[in-house]
Amino acid sequence: MFMRTAATFAAVVATSSILSTAAFAQQDETAAHGQVDLGKTTFAQKCSHCHGPNMVNSGTVTPDLRRFPDDQPRFVTTVKQGKNGRMPPWGDILSDDEITALWAYVSSRRAQ
Ligand code: HEC
């Protein structure tokens, strides 16, 4: 009798922890999609006239951001401070959340 109860209890615990792990994974994915969407909108408003709509760009005048390395600190530094007087600084205009979202969007478009 006791054994059966214990086994049932263990099964319930195991099942519910699987379910809650799945729920967390789902939430993470939803959050990631939200970030990419926000980044995409911000990019369209602030960056696309130089870096190309949806990042499609020949890479001759401005760098092709689909080829930017997987280097978030470098991305954040450039976006905040600008570069070589040609890439404008955005530190006073964009929030850290918007820059993080831009990074999520750039990462989602990275060429393999
Ligand atoms: C006025 C045109 C212009 C706008 C607007 C612009 N950029 Fe740039 N961006 C440039 C140019 C030009 C460079 C190349 C700078 C260099 O290497 O001399 C550059 C370079 C970059 C780089 C590469 C920096 C590196 O470390 O190699 C990143 C990343 C970048 N831009 C992101 C963005 C993002 C994100 C936005 C929107 C918030 C944006 N840019 C808006 C012109 C622009």
UniProtKB/TrEMBL annotation:
Coiled-coil ranges (or none): none
One Pfam short name: Cytochrome_CBB3
Gene3D superfamilies: Cytochrome c-like domain
Every Cytochrome c domain range: 34-110
Keywords: Heme, Iron, Metal-binding, Signal
Signal peptide residue numbers: 1-25
PANTHER family named in the record: CBB3-TYPE CYTOCHROME C OXIDASE SUBUNIT FIXP, CYTOCHROME BC1 COMPLEX CYTOCHROME C SUBUNIT
Entry protein name: Cytochrome c
Organism the protein comes from: Bradyrhizobium denitrificans
Lineage: Bacteria, Pseudomonadati, Pseudomonadota, Alphaproteobacteria, Hyphomicrobiales
